[in-house]
Design brief:
This protein has about 220 residues and is of the alpha+beta class. It has seven helices and eleven strands. The chain has two domains: about 90 residues; about 120 residues, D-amino Acid Aminotransferase, Chain A, domain 2, CATH 3.20.10.10. The strands form three sheets. Strands 9-8-7-10-11 form a five-stranded mixed beta sheet. The chain is globular, with a radius of gyration of 18 Å. The N terminus is likely disordered.
């Protein structure tokens, strides 16, 4: 499941990936760390929840991985890979912003993430729509939210907005079967990404809130 020294790590071979998490860093700290770890504990590995021993290993190794691997990419991405046998490995790499952020681009990413949710119970990226003072959240009722989505859901309730879950939302957007005033992607890796071709005050508000959190974390880290 990992190792404490480099000689052991050279002998470590990861099997077929079952869960892949990509968490954004801010000045060598995992943004939304506690939320991400809680969401990890709710993911499914095979037929069972991720073992508590594995979650504990992740908590223990986050500090070591960031200390040793985040100097080159302090605002990069930490990637956690868990294989089918429950072995895990961490690495840090550069962050690359999304190149395509139109509504249909974001919907396509959310649809791919939904496929992952069917296997693990959590989608790392979800599409959200603005319909007046209601936010429509593209998440199945039997799926748990990702770490980033819990943040947006909490912010929405703080602002007094109604949040409605809508399974298959990405497909509805792709087929033009739903009306909306704005759209944004909520991603563990990219944060809140407002659709570039559909300006919306609420979309920009959530994107700005995430950016302020990123900047605050970077200052105090």
């Amino acid at each position: 499941m990992g190792s404490e020294n480099m000689s052991e790590m050279r002998d470590f071979v990861l099997g077929t990936p079952a869960i892949v998490c990509r968490w954004r860093l801010a000045n060598r700290q995992v943004l939304l760390e506690n939320r991400h770890v809680r969401a990890l504990s709710k993911r499914t590995l095979g037929e069972e929840k991720v073992p508590t021993t594995l979650v504990a290993w992740v908590k223990q190794h986050l500090e070591w991985t960031l200390k040793e691997g985040a100097f080159a990419h302090p605002d990069g991405v930490l990637m956690l890979v868990i294989d089918e046998a429950g072995q895990a490995a961490m690495t840090v790499g550069p962050y690359e912003p999304l190149a395509q952020t139109g509504v249909l681009d974001l919907a396509a990413r959310a649809a791919l993430a939904h496929d992952e949710a069917e296997r693990t119970g959590i989608a790392p990226e979800c599409l959200w729509l603005v319909q007046g003072d209601t936010l429509v959240w593209g998440i199945d009722r039997d799926h748990d939210p990702s770490g980033a989505s819990t943040l947006v859901n909490d912010l929405a309730h703080t602002l007094g907005l109604r949040v409605a879950r809508q399974p298959g939302l990405a497909e509805l957007v792709g087929s033009g079967s739903v009306a909306y005033d704005g759209a944004f992607l909520v991603s563990d890796e990219h944060g809140v990404v407002a659709a570039r071709n559909l300006p919306s005050t609420l979309s920009e508000k959530f994107a700005a809130s995430y950016q302020r959190l990123f900047e605050k974390t970077a200052r105090i880290a």
